[in-house]
Design goal:
With 398 residues, the protein is an alpha+beta fold. The protein has helices at residues 16-26, 33-45, 96-111, 123-127, 164-175, 186-196, 234-245, 264-267, 288-294, 351-359, 364-369, 377-386, and strands at 6-10, 48-55, 58-72, 75-87, 115-118, 132-133, 136-143, 156-159, 200-205, 211-220, 223-231, 253-259, 274-279, 282-285, 304-311, 320-326, 332-336, 347-350, 373-374.
């Protein structure tokens, strides 16, 4: 190997110690020996590939690609979750993360992971590589005297101490209505949810004894922190908020995050609670032809044919001009064009803009207003009319 040559290779379990040393330094935490052993078991169990950039046989940078699935328009998509991106200070600003990201994109394409998510340390940095903001959430801080009015409900709320399998069925019914929520595996519940969302669990059962909602929460220092509030209808939502209100004698306030379309303030007697809109995760399509083939557009009375041009500097297989054919049924395909034809009818965009449009974070005409896509307004409107309107939401972290 030549001096200063960068080699990208997969991290194996033998490199666990040096990889964890970098992670603990970069993310400023410290694990005990017991915690490291637990982390090692988790890494060995969870489906993922860990890539590293070596310079002169020294670990310089690393990134993990988690093998996950996400819901988009109610369908499951294979997704590569980028996590744990870190570089030792002496190797920073040498393009190592860029090499790891491009390598990861190629590997994800080969594995059939047509889309990728990540939580950015800096949105602008990852935007350069094709990822774009795809979801945000509302963060509420509610003083106890401003909580929703407690009401009687026809069902019952019970403390739950059983397995996560029972909760997963409720979660899946809830999450599949959003774009960009995770399909949670048994391992995800075991290692991720149990660790990041500790505390009490309560389940709401309706009068038919069907479990249609649950809450994961903890009470500490006079604050009730809602880690997860999942409900399948307004009955369950109202009942669980009434349950939260039953803690009024032991708390001063409640904190909770909710989807961006949440309407809680509208239902409050006094809606002047603290509200924040927090940009959260980013997404990018990895393989545009595979993604569109699996994507479900809205049905129509006739087929739509649109000419689109996609720019993707870091996944060249996506760049080019295509005929987007959307059948009346909603099924679609992309056909690469050698001859662009009438360029005035072409809708031009980068991969990040296309990703956000198809996930529903922003509409095509909004991107046109922001000068993020260019083309005939009528053609852009036709595209918008075929994209389902769904809220994006991710109640997880990686």
């Amino acid at each position: 190997m030549n001096k200063n040559e960068v080699v990208i290779k997969q991290l194996e379990k033998e490199q666990f110690d040096e990889s964890m040393a970098l992670s603990q330094f970069a993310f400023q935490y410290k694990r005990t020996a017991e915690e490291l052993e637990h982390t090692k078991k988790q890494l060995e169990a969870e489906p993922a590939v860990r890539w590293a950039a070596y310079i002169d046989d020294q670990l310089a940078a690393q990134a993990t690609v988690l093998e996950l699935e996400t819901y988009i328009n109610g369908k499951r998509f294979a997704m590569g979750g980028i996590a744990g991106v870190a570089t030792w200070p002496e190797y920073r600003r040498q393009g190592l993360v860029a090499k790891l990201l491009v390598h990861s994109l190629m590997e994800m394409k080969e594995k059939g992971q047509s889309i990728s998510f990540l939580h950015p340390f800096a949105f602008g940095f990852y935007r350069k590589f094709g990822w774009e903001t795809y979801t945000e959430h509302k963060a509420y801080t509610i003083k106890v005297e401003l909580l929703p009015t407690r009401n009687t409900y026809v069902g019952r709320v019970e403390k739950y101490t059983g397995s996560y399998d029972f909760l997963d069925a409720i979660y899946e019914a809830y999450a599949s209505h959003y774009n960009g929520s995770l399909v949670r595996s048994e391992l995800w519940w075991k290692y991720r949810i149990s660790k990041r969302k500790p505390g009490q669990i309560a389940v709401y059962y309706d009068k038919q004894n069907q479990a249609i909602g649950y809450i994961i929460y903890e009470v500490k220092d006079m604050v009730l922190r809602v880690h997860e509030l999942i409900y399948l209808n307004e009955e369950a939502k109202a009942a669980l908020w009434s349950f939260i209100g039953q803690h009024d004698s032991m708390i001063n306030e409640v904190t909770i995050t909710a989807p961006s379309d949440d309407l809680l303030p509208f239902s409050l007697t006094n809606p002047r609670i603290k509200q924040e809109i927090i940009p959260y995760f980013m997404a990018r399509i990895v393989d545009v032809e595979a993604f569109v083939k699996h994507y479900e557009f809205l049905s129509s009375t006739e087929e739509d044919r649109l000419q689109i041009e996609i720019k993707d500097e870091h996944a060249e297989w996506n760049s080019g001009c295509y005929l987007l054919r959307i059948e009346a049924s909603g099924n679609a395909s992309l056909q690469r064009l050698d001859n662009m034809g009438d360029s005035s009818a072409t809708i031009k965009m980068d991969i990040g803009s296309l990703t956000c449009m198809l996930l529903g974070y922003l509409r095509p005409l909004q991107f046109a207003q922001l000068a993020r896509i260019d083309g005939d307004t009528h053609a852009i409107k036709r595209l918008q009319d075929r994209i389902p309107e769904r809220t994006t939401y991710l109640p997880d972290f990686f």
